[in-house]
Amino acid sequence: MIRVVIADDELMMRSGLRSLIDWKQYGMSVVAECSNGKEVLEVMDNEDIQILITDIQMPLVNGLQLMKQSLERNADLQVILVSSYDEFAYVQEGIRYGAIDYLFKPTLDADQLANALSRCVAKIEQKRIQEAALGAKIHAATSLLELDLKQFLLGNKDSIPPNVSWLSSPCVCMYMKIHQLEKTEEPYGSMLEDILCKELQSLFYSEFIQGITVEIGTDMVLAIFPEQLEPKFPVPVFKKNVEEKLQITLTIGYMAVEGIKSLKAKLTIVKQLEDYVFFEGIGQMMDMDHLLQFGSLEEASELRNHDTEPASFLIHEKIKQWRERTKSPAQVKKEACQLLLSISYALGITESLPEFLEMINYTETLEDVENVLMLRFEDAGRSVEGYAGKLIAKALEYMTLKFREEINLQEVADYIHVSRSYFSLLFKRHTGKKFIDYLIELRIREAKRLLCCRDYKIYEVAEQTGFKDVKYFSKLFKRMTGYTPIEYREHQLSLSDGLTKT
Predict the structure, then answer these.
(1) Calpha distance 64→35 (Å, rounded)
(2) pLDDT at residue number 250
(3) How many CB atoms lie within 10 A of CB 377?
């Protein structure tokens, strides 16, 4: 539905305008009635308004001032001016600003209002069609180029599109890997990785006048752009902008390539980047040409007898060897599992071994591996199923109480007195979901409940369910339910009205 605001300092006039026509018949809904311009601006800060009907003479902010400030907020807003006086100078100024029509209160009737609203609808529809056509054209061209590039890199195509000449020239190649999705302040829910990759690609296209991106897996994006653009858009600045806007941690590896064809030979760099992150940690920037120098070195010597040395000493010694980066992450995880088995059998602690072995395979960094190993022997003798089950139950209870606030993975881990990485692994294994997905489900479920009540504005629903930004809330809600918050409310209320009538 098209959302309308009526602004007039006379209550009778506001009520009269609202009752003059059947708004639903025109596909419209009056979402607010305001007595002055200041109230209208407050509504616009929280609602997506498409039509404004405003009196010219109002206190605090008059109709023309309101129109000017409203159009600064939303250039696509359609405005209808009304007045009890023959204020030709004001009308001229309003039309110059872009008002659709001027209605004279003493002679105003339903047909006049309907005609003015019809012109507004025509403008809105024309704009929508134009934007959809342009967006579809750009999206189709970009999507086709992305697909062509992906097929070329995979070896399914022999050449690049001939109309993209810069791909044959020196380019900068960036591999961008997203980390610690649970820390996202405005999380997107169960489709988090997919949405963030799309947002990351959109930010790239908004900042680089030339370039192309391709998704690699669920949490990595490859971007290529002409080398001459790099000084204008330095990679560190882009990384900082992305992390601030999306509230994520980003690792970027970059390198120069002599055209797209030379990139094919360097595709193994993706694996090298993951290895680098495993050993050095997340959130860094690196020259990937330097990474290509790393190869497989001789394996380190075996540790001394596991049966005679304390478990903690053996673990720390092994961690020291692994930090030398003589082995790949896969080899490190394999050795960690062997170490876990050896010490567990030597000490007679075999309970819950499969669970701990699984946790090692889920780790992303060497620090996580160390945490799992140390935790295993610190909690020796305790049943991990029973112990962890109690921890997760306590965490879920805390989340149910606190989901309306700005809680995060670290806060809940602190509450149950475990490390962040260990809690993340436990939570996923016991619930089958990531922490952030479970938190979002709690929030969206509550948002659905509140939206079934007419008393709450959309921004109030967002605030009361733990979302700081109503735009993020609306985007997430649409992704997860298929409806915008307003559409969901209207759908649920129409169902309720239908049941009441029957």
Answers:
(1) 15
(2) 87
(3) 18
Mean pLDDT by 10 residues, the chain (502 residues): 90 89 89 89 85 86 84 86 73 76 86 90 82 57 68 66 70 81 48 73 81 80 77 69 83 79 63 67 73 35 37 79 87 85 67 72 80 69 58 91 89 83 77 86 92 87 89 87 89 73 54
Give the full edge-to-edge strand order of the sheet including 51-55: 28-34, 2-7, 51-55, 78-83, 101-104
| C-alpha span between 280 and 177 (Å, rounded) | 14
In this structure, what are the phi and psi dihedrals at residue 78, rounded to the nearest 5 degrees?
A: -100, 130
Asked if the structure places residue 354 within a domain, the reply is: yes
Helices (H), ranges, 21-109: 37-44, 63-73, 88-97
Per-residue confidence (pLDDT) for residue 292, from 0 to 100? 46
- With DSSP H G I counted as helix, E B as strand and the rest as coil, what are the percentages for the chain, rounded to 5? 60, 10, 30
Two structure tokens written together for 45: 């800060």
How far is residue 229's CA from residue 208's CA, in Å, rounded to a whole number?
A: 8
End-to-end CA distance of the chain: 25
Q: Are residues 19 and 46 in the same domain?
A: yes
Cross-strand partners of 5: 32, 52
Report which of 140, 139, 125, 250 is spatially closest to residue 196, judged by C-alpha positions. Answer: 250
Q: Please tell me whether residues 10 and 119 are part of one structural domain.
A: yes
* Residue 406 near residue 466 (C-beta atoms within 8 A): yes
Four-residue CA torsion sign, 163, 145, 287, 285: positive
**How deeply is 57 buried, as exposed, middle or buried, from its count of CB atoms within 10 A (0-12, 13-18, 19+)?**
middle
Is 44 in a helix, a strand, or coil? helix
Distance of CA 407 to the CA centre of its chain: 17
How far from the centroid of its chain's Cα atoms is residue 274's Cα?
23
What are phi and psi for residue 12, nearest 5 degrees?
-65, -35
Is there a contact between 184 and 436 (Cβ–Cβ < 8 Å)?
A: yes
- Phi then psi for residue 98, to 5 deg, are 120, 15
Q: Which of 16, 82, 28 is nearest to 55 (CA)?
A: 82
65 contacts: CB under 8 Å, gap ≥ 6: 37
**Residue 138 is assigned to a structural domain of this protein:** no
Counted domains in the chain: 5
**Local structure of 201: helix, strand or coil:** helix
Is the full-model pTM beyond 0.85?
no
Sequence-ordered list of residues with C-beta below 8 angstroms from that of 215, at least 6 positions apart, any chain: 197, 201, 221, 222
Does the residue 150 lie in any domain? no
In this structure, the answer to whether residues 274 and 204 fall within a common structural domain is yes
Task: With beta carbons less than 8 A apart as the criterion, state whether 218 and 176 touch.
Answer: no
